[in-house]
Design goal:
Elements (H helix, E strand, L loop, with lengths): L9 E2 L41 H12 L8 E3 L2 H19 L8 H13 L1 H7 L5 H8 L7 H10 L6 E8 L2 E11 L7 H5 L3 H20 L5 H18 L3 H4 L2 H4 L2 E3 H7 L5 H8 L5 E4 L2 H13 L2 H16 L5 H16 L7 H12 L1 H12 L2 H24 L5 H12 L2 E5 L17 H17 L20 E4 L4 E5 L14 H18 L20 H19 L15 H22 L12 H11 L3 E3 L1 H10 L5 H9 L3 H7 L19
Parallel strand pairs: 4-6, 7-9
Antiparallel strand pairs: 1-8, 2-10, 3-4, 5-6, 8-9
Helix pairs in contact: 2-3, 2-17, 2-18, 3-17, 5-15, 6-13, 8-9, 8-16, 9-15, 19-20, 19-22, 19-24, 22-24, 22-25
Cofactor: Zn(2+)
Family: Belongs to the peptidase M13 family.
InterPro entries: MetalloPept_cat_dom_sf (IPR024079), Peptidase_M13 (IPR000718), Peptidase_M13_C (IPR018497), Peptidase_M13_dom_2 (IPR042089), Peptidase_M13_N (IPR008753)
Length: 681
């Protein structure tokens, strides 16, 4: 089952934090700071902060750091990923060495990892694990039977032309529904199929060769002919797909239809059979891209069965190749790793094994991870810092000049209902239904996917679980969920070196404080602002205020559209708008929260920098990141986040306090005239 957060609200960030509650007259004086938190070794003092702040803070690091051979990019918070990975490895390998009771969590963790690390058994099996799924496909006698098979594929996480997931209904957030989305293509974006550029032509050629190679490994006859047919089919699907800009617009993608209306939309696909095979009983569903579903109806009827069978076998191979013999694993990496993202080497097998166990038994690992690596004091301090950021947002909303009082009242009402979740869930998912065998990697993956699909489908018709998390505690990330109006911060993003108890507040407000502000900001970005405090799509804006907000967003779009990280590839300001609003609001509010934490006292000067300067240094430090060119192109085309350099500098250009702190002047590289600065929240 594909799990998707609506509105593009999930971000990948990393930050430091020394938490300090807003003080009252009764509050104790804070402990004397022990360090500034400024990483001087990363600076390039040949660059002036007023010219290029990002390179002033990170220039030496950018010059001296090599991207590890098994990564497509590498950045400041990759340290957190590496640390969490090592911590999980210790937990998993301990379980694998334990003589655990059958069916216990320890047995499942250990045997899942053992099945992945048993290369000899996996290699001996070759393509044999594919036989059962191939048999289902070979048994098809007409395209009328596609819905039942595609439903089965959805349950075991094999791709198809449609995707489905269970989520809260965006207009009735107290209940779950099924969302159907466009799918069916293997390249990162429709532009890879349709744009006539040298880079994409090279990738298309390599992709066709990759399909042929993998079909050959699987023992499929006439692989070259079938690879061409598969690629042509995917190209037709790409032509029908919506752009990523349109697909992140919740106003366009929330289209609730009855099952009968869905059947009329795609008459050549039996949706009743699809839903029945999935075990879903609903009268209505949400269709994200109706024109895609309508267009695919003729494609289904006009494409011969043999092509569909080849395409479906390719989907099986493509999704399960990482769990097959080494020749499949190498073939999969050669294209998706080397060619598509420019990564020279595959990750060591133990790292991939840890990732597989984490994916399949995430909250089992999470419970152990939290017990060993996340002390209760960290959660308590984080809760106080979140309170600071919410208070700063409240004050900022009240002081907005472009918003009228009526809309302010509604914005404050929504802010008051935000639900923070810190560290880990209050209750853990149950994995008792999952059977894990030490000698059956492929089967473990199929069974794991089935358990998760059935867990999701079982939600339908029941009450919404307010305690559910959509990330594990060991995930270095954070998210805002608009249909629950919740901001969520897993434990792993609060670990050293970024959760720095020895650093004075400023550097950390520029880091983890801005992360918190960013997530709050998603509730008020171009998409999140369409939801009310109950998590429902509901316009709480006056027309004039919405127009003013959209005009500010248009300015931000134009700013980011001008950035060109690679010649010929510009940032898509419309695609990245939500994240850019989140960054701008997050940093601006973090600055205000820092001033609240000072409680009227002057910020200390440490390492010759004022508190205000260190806050902005903290912001830039967390965005240190390098990309391989291929990976950067993929990000520009498919990721709603701007490349890190532009997240850092592009945000700072709009913050008046930054210009004051570093005394920028007209003609400086970072200068933006006051009347041109975008200030939203």
């Amino acid at each position: 089952m594909k799990h998707v957060l609506l509105g593009g609200a999930v971000i990948g960030m990393s930050a430091c934090s020394h938490f300090q509650a807003v003080e009252t007259a009764e509050s104790p004086q804070p402990q004397a700071p022990l360090a500034s938190g400024v990483i001087h070794a990363h600076f390039d003092d040949s660059v002036q902060p007023q010219e290029d702040f990002y390179r002033w803070v990170n220039g030496t690091w950018l010059e001296e750091t090599e991207i590890p051979a098994d990564r497509s990019n590498y950045g400041a918070f990759s340290v957190l990923d590496d640390r969490a990975e090592q911590q999980l490895r210790s937990i998993i390998e301990t379980a694998a060495e334990t003589d655990a009771a059958p069916g216990s969590d320890t047995q499942k963790i250990g045997d899942f990892y053992t099945s992945f690390m048993d290369v000899e058994t996996v290699n001996a099996l070759g393509a044999k694990p594919l036989a059962e799924e191939f048999g289902r496909i070979d048994a098809l006698t007409s395209t009328d039977e596609l819905p039942a098979l595609m439903a089965h594929h959805q349950l075991v996480n094999i791709g198809g032309i449609y995707g489905a997931y269970i989520w809260q209904d965006a207009k009735q957030s107290d209940q779950y529904t099924v969302y159907f989305v466009q799918s069916g293509t293997g390249l990162p974006d429709r532009d890879y199929y349709l744009e006539d550029t040298e880079d994409f032509a090279r990738i298309r050629k390599a992709y066709r060769a990759h399909i042929e190679k993998m079909l050959t490994l699987a023992g499929i006859e006439a692989p070259a002919t079938k690879a061409e047919a598969i690629f042509d089919l995917e190209t037709e699907l790409a032509r029908m797909q919506w752009t990523k800009v349109d697909s992140r617009d919740i106003s366009k993608t929330y289209n609730k239809v009855t099952v009968d209306e869905l059947a009329k939309l795609t008459p050549n696909f039996d949706w009743a059979t699809f839903l029945t095979e999935m075990g879903i009983e609903l009268d209505a569903v949400v269709v994200a891209q109706p024109s895609f579903f309508e267009a695919t109806s003729d494609l289904i009827a006009n494409t011969d069965l043999a092509t569909w069978q080849a395409y479906l076998k390719w989907q099986v191979i493509d999704d399960y190749a990482p769990y097959l013999s080494q020749e499949f694993v190498n073939g999969d990496f050669d294209f998706y790793g080397k060619t598509l993202r420019g990564t020279p080497e595959i990750r060591p097998r133990w790292k991939r094994g840890v990732a597989v166990v984490e994916e399949s038994l995430g909250e089992v690992l999470g419970r152990i991870y939290v017990a060993e690596h996340f002390p209760p004091i960290a959660k308590a301090r984080m809760e106080r810092l979140v309170d600071n950021l919410l208070l700063a947002y409240e004050q900022s909303i009240k002081e907005l000049e472009w918003m009228t009082d009526d809309t302010k009242a509604e914005a404050l009402k929504k802010l008051a209902t935000f639900k923070p979740k810190i560290g880990y869930p209050d209750k853990w998912k149950d994995y008792s239904a999952l059977e894990v065998r030490a000698d059956d990697l492929f089967g473990n993956m199929v069974r794991s996917n089935l358990v998760e699909s059935r867990r999701e489908i079982a939600k339908l018709g029941g009450p919404v679980d307010p305690d559910e998390w959509h990330m594990t505690p060991q995930t270095v990330n954070a998210y805002y969920n608009p249909v629950a109006n919740e901001i969520v911060f897993p434990a792993a993003i609060l670990q050293p070196p970024f959760f720095n108890l020895e650093a004075e507040d400023a550097i950390n407000y520029g880091g983890i404080g801005a992360v918190i502000g960013h997530e709050i900001g998603h509730g008020f970005d171009d998409q999140g602002s369409k939801f009310d405090g109950e998590g429902n799509l509901n316009n709480w804006w006056t027309d004039a205020d919405r127009q003013a907000f959209d005009a500010l967003g248009k300015q931000l779009i134009e700013q980011y559209n001008a950035y060109e990280p690679i010649p010929g590839y510009k940032v898509n300001g419309q695609l990245t708008l939500g994240e850019n609003i989140g960054d701008l609001g997050g940093l601006s509010i973090a600055y205000e929260a820092y001033k609240l934490a000072l409680n009227g006292r002057p910020a200390p000067v440490l390492d010759r920098y004022t508190g205000e300067q260190r806050l902005f240094i903290g912001w830039a430090q967390v965005w240190a990141r390098k990309y391989r060119e291929e990976a950067l192109i993929e990000r520009i085309k498919s990721d709603p986040h701007s490349p890190s350099e532009y997240r850092a500098n592009g945000t700072l250009e709009n913050v008046p306090a930054f210009h004051e702190a570093f005394n920028t002047r007209p003609g400086d590289g970072m200068w933006k005239a006051p009347e041109d600065r975008v200030q939203i929240w």
